[in-house]
Specification:
Structural class: alpha/beta
Number of domains: 3
Strand order of the largest sheet: 3-2-1-4-5-13-10
CATH topology of the largest domain: Rossmann fold
CATH superfamily of the largest domain: Vaccinia Virus protein VP39
């Protein structure tokens, strides 16, 4: 699951930077600056380097994460310059703290008006604001379907203080509602619902126009076929091979692969020895996320 998430982020980072490079009038200008508004411990540094950036700016609310990010950058000898800002980008205006505001912004955490303002003010016209986030519509659909205040499986779990009906009856705003989110090996912390249509309106207020919004499964289907993408998918081991080789155990339970067994049985006479997939529980977790991209137009 972690590898699949990283594959999605690798593709969006690489393709966004490739797009912006292709649009440059000066093809000899290789300078490219990325600002990650929620850089954490620097888990995406290698992705940025492989995309050929020349300057990285990492911001995060947690000082310990910034220190880890600095350490990871120093130990790995990345071929780009870097600066680090310990700041809460959802509350502080950070443009004045930057050495150069003409940057692409990558983001994958809580989004509020101040955060979007920071993204917009740190971009020049034509720059791109992209990232990943939980799909609030899907979260609320599953909450309503559960009939309780929580839902999930053995890979992820989400818990609210109230049931869907109780939230509606109490008039609780679905934008900013808090919930606890656990995702195996990736997330275990409070999150806040971000209703995408409202986020899009806020982005429009700050000159950011939507390019696309897709769920992870949609993004995967559209990007899995290219040679480079397929090679990266295999290199990162983003999908589990099923059936597993001798002595290897599948990541999930036997019932988690029923959909794959049915697919192999109905493959219209094609001989398919193995197929790349996620377990049913992992697909359920992956389809909670969406990837988005906005362009700065004014």
């Amino acid at each position: 699951m972690r590898n699949f998430n990283n594959w999605v982020k690798s593709i969006i980072i690489r393709d966004t930077i490739k797009l912006l490079r292709s649009e440059r009038e000066d093809k000899n200008n290789n300078e490219f600056i990325v600002h990650d508004l929620a850089c954490g411990k620097g888990g995406d540094l290698t992705k940025y380097e492989k995309s050929g950036i020349t300057h990285f700016i990492g911001s995060d609310i947690a000082s310990v994460s910034i220190e880890h990010c600095k350490e990871r950058y120093g130990n790995s000898r990345k071929h780009f310059k870097a600066e680090f800002i310990n700041a809460d980008c959802s509350r502080e205006i950070i443009r004045d703290k930057l050495s150069d505001p003409n940057i692409l912004v990558s983001f994958h955490s809580i989004i509020v008006r101040t955060m979007v303002r920071n993204a917009s003010e740190c971009l020049k016209i034509g720059g791109i604001f992209c990232g990943t986030m939980p799909d609030s519509m899907e979260v609320m659909r599953r909450l309503k379907e559960s009939g309780t205040n929580q839902f999930g499986n053995d890979v992820y779990s989400i818990k609210f203080d109230k049931t869907y009906d109780e939230m509606i009856a109490a008039g609780i705003s679905l934008f900013g509602a808090r919930y606890n989110f656990h995702l195996e090996e990736v997330v275990d912390c409070p999150e806040f619902l971000v209703y995408f249509p409202i986020m899009e309106e806020i982005c429009e207020d700050y000159g950011l126009k939507l390019i696309f919004k897709k769920r992870f499964d949609e993004f995967y289907e559209e990007n899995r076929e290219g040679d480079d993408n397929l090679q990266l998918l295999n290199f990162m081991e983003a999908l589990e091979k099923y059936p597993p080789k001798d002595r290897e155990r599948p990541m999930g339970k036997p019932e988690d692969y029923r959909h794959i067994r049915e697919y192999l049985q109905n493959s219209s006479g094609q001989v398919i020895n193995t197929i790349g997939t996620l377990s049913k529980s992992e697909w359920e977790a992956a389809t909670l996320y969406l990837v988005f991209s906005f362009r700065k137009v004014f």
